[in-house]
Design goal:
Blueprint lengths: L7 H9 L16 H10 L5 E2 L7 E2 L3 H11 L3 E11 L6 H4 L4 E2 L6 H6 L8 E3 L1 H4 L13 H10 L3 E13 L7 H4 L1 H22 L2 H16 L2 H14 L8 H14 L3 H12 L4 H11 L3 H8 L5
Parallel strand pairs: 3-6
Antiparallel strand pairs: 1-5, 2-6, 3-4, 3-5
Helix pairs in contact: 7-9, 9-12, 9-14, 10-12, 12-13, 13-15
């Protein structure tokens, strides 16, 4: 109970009087969700950890299925599955069945750098915290789980189960945390993707970087509208297939050109990128890649074109 303002204390005490296996912690100060998660995990005694969001529902044997997968595969650190999507609050898993499905792609590290493909109902080993000393960054308010899974992926494999084990409530009023402050969500997501992508590119050999370059230069060279249409078609026809966000392909190309100090190409793709996306995103790129100030001003002037 992280400084609850919704009278949760009264509700929890009803369960405390019935069950003696609940460890209840209450803080007077409101904490970020990841600070609260770390606090809870530190007193956890189980072999595996999972989070339970108040607006999510699980299939009755979901935890058994997820934990069995971790038991069978010791090299896997995190396991995740697909979800039904509902716009009706408090529906049970059985009530939501046959609704639209949020298909997550099979795990691949570069896919995880592009965006968080794990979803809101994974399970992971407690040893990730207590042995590997990997915790959630308490300074994040929205995207800290994305940062956490990327850091876990540097040491452990991650597995996707091709089955639906839970529901995701998508509020029609956009009350979900990630929609409450879109700018904060964009900033957090960008800072995580930018930091870990740079780290990833710096770890690659010249041959590996060339492979990444060739697989993305084609995508950023095609007309942007064609990329968008192709993305939508693939999502509809092949819902389980991961197709990289166009913005991430641009970011990879920009960072590779920055790495080899070809600033003319950096400026070129920043300009091209700005024509198709928000100035907030491109300014984050520009402020992070360290190109000359006059080139930065020239690119940002495109906002007025």
């Amino acid at each position: 109970n992280s400084g609850s303002q919704q009278n949760e204390d009264v509700l929890v005490k009803k369960y405390l009087s019935k069950f003696n296996n609940i460890e209840y912690i209450r803080t007077t100060e409101r904490e970020t969700i990841y600070q609260a998660w770390n606090r809870g995990i530190k007193i956890a005694k189980g072999k595996f950890i999972c989070n339970s969001n108040t607006d999510d529902r699980l299939k009755e044997d979901a935890l058994e299925i997820l934990s069995n997968e971790l038991e069978k595969n010791t090299e896997i650190g995190v396991v995740y599955a697909d979800q039904y999507i509902t716009t009706i609050p408090n529906q049970t898993f059985k009530e939501v069945r046959n609704s639209s499905i949020y298909y997550f792609p099979n795990y691949k590290y570069i896919h995880l750098l592009d965006r968080c493909i794990i979803g809101s109902q994974p399970m992971w080993r407690s040893s990730i915290h207590f042995t590997d000393n990997i915790w959630f960054n308490k300074d994040f308010e929205v995207c800290g789980d994305h940062d956490f899974y990327i850091r876990v992926a540097e040491k452990h494999d991650i597995k996707h189960l091709d089955k639906v084990l839970g529901t995701y409530y998508k509020s029609p009023e956009k009350s979900n945390k990630e929609y409450q402050d879109p700018i904060k969500t964009i900033n957090e997501g960008f800072s995580i993707t930018f930091y870990h992508t740079q780290k990833y590119l710096n770890s690659l050999s010249g041959t590996e970087i060339k492979k990444v370059f060739l697989s993305n230069i084609f995508l950023v060279s095609m007309p942007f509208i064609f990329y968008r249409v192709l993305y939508k078609i693939i999502c509809i026809v092949f819902p389980r297939q991961h197709f990289q966000y166009p913005e991430y392909s641009y970011l990879l190309i920009i960072l590779i050109y920055r790495k080899i100090k070809n600033y003319n190409k950096v400026v070129h793709y920043c300009k091209k990128y700005l024509k198709h996306t928000s100035s907030l995103r491109i300014q984050r790129v520009l402020n992070s890649i360290g190109i000359p100030e006059h080139d930065k001003k020239e690119i940002l002037n495109l906002e007025n074109v």
